[in-house]
Specification:
Helix content: 25-40%
Number of helices: 5
Oligomer: single chain
CATH superfamily of the largest domain: Glutaredoxin
Number of domains: 2
Strand content: 15-25%
CATH class of the largest domain: Alpha Beta
Number of strands: 9
Distance between the termini: 46 Å
Strand order of the largest sheet: 5-4-3-6-7
CATH topology of the largest domain: Glutaredoxin
Radius of gyration: 20 Å
Order of helices and strands: EEEHEHEHEEHEHE
Structural class: alpha/beta
Largest sheet: 5 strands, mixed
Length: 219
């Protein structure tokens, strides 16, 4: 059974574009993008099963999966390898490292999904997908994307931080400063009028740089 997608081959989806839809076989049964509507999704590709960098990433994603789940975000892996290769690799990770992979891995032998998401670069010497990561919001829009070369592993903690930041900025209409961490101060939008710009501010702030404590989660 081949993966299917409703969109033709295209370039890498841009931020705030609708994510290309898909339906495919995975290690945990059939999955479609529509299955994740209403929640956050991290869709990430890896070049090939049974490779060292990919194995290290999958172990890290598996360890962090409860943290992603706690903020309403699911994980979904994908590569151009077959379902049977995925199953064998998942078993090997369990047997060798004692780690269960709790999230699905898409079979994309036809490369339909990889092409729709721009995971296969035209200059590549083979069909391996680069390390692409897409953060997709509850409405199905791409909110962030990261692309790494095959030789360099991703930072799973940074991807988790990114999703946490996006959730806060959506909830409170704020921005997050450099190296922001959950619970840290946030930035208010810049003023839109002379009157707003004239409002007195605390020390260390200015009309264009207004920082304040974040609203507590659930508050």
């Amino acid at each position: 059974m081949s993966a299917t997608t409703s969109e033709p081959e295209r370039t890498i989806p841009r931020i705030n574009e609708r994510a290309p839809s898909f339906r495919a076989r995975t290690t945990l049964g059939p999955r479609s993008l529509a299955d994740y509507a209403g929640g956050w999704l991290v869709l990430f590709s890896h070049p090939a099963d049974f490779t060292p960098v990919c194995t290290s990433e999958f172990i890290a994603f598996a360890h962090a999966e409860p943290q992603f789940r706690a903020i309403g975000c699911q994980l979904l892996g994908i590569s151009v390898d077959s379902l049977y290769a995925h199953l064998a690799w998942v078993r090997a990770i369990k047997e060798r490292f004692g780690v269960d992979i709790p999230f699905p891995i898409i079979e994309d032998v036809s490369m339909v999904i990889a092409r729709a998401y721009g995971m296969l670069h035209p200059q590549a010497t083979d069909t391996s997908a680069v390390r692409s990561t897409f953060v997709i919001d509850p409405d199905g829009f791409v909110r962030a994307s990261l692309h790494y070369p095959m030789t360099t592993g991703r930072n799973v903690a940074e991807i988790l931080r990114l999703v946490q930041a996006l959730r806060i900025t959506d909830r409170d209409t704020v921005s997050t400063p450099e190296a922001w961490q959950p619970g840290g101060a946030v930035l208010d939008p810049p003023p839109q009028s002379v009157a707003e710009a004239a409002v007195p501010l605390a020390d260390g702030q200015d009309w264009y740089y207004r920082i304040r404590p974040a609203r507590p989660q659930g508050g």
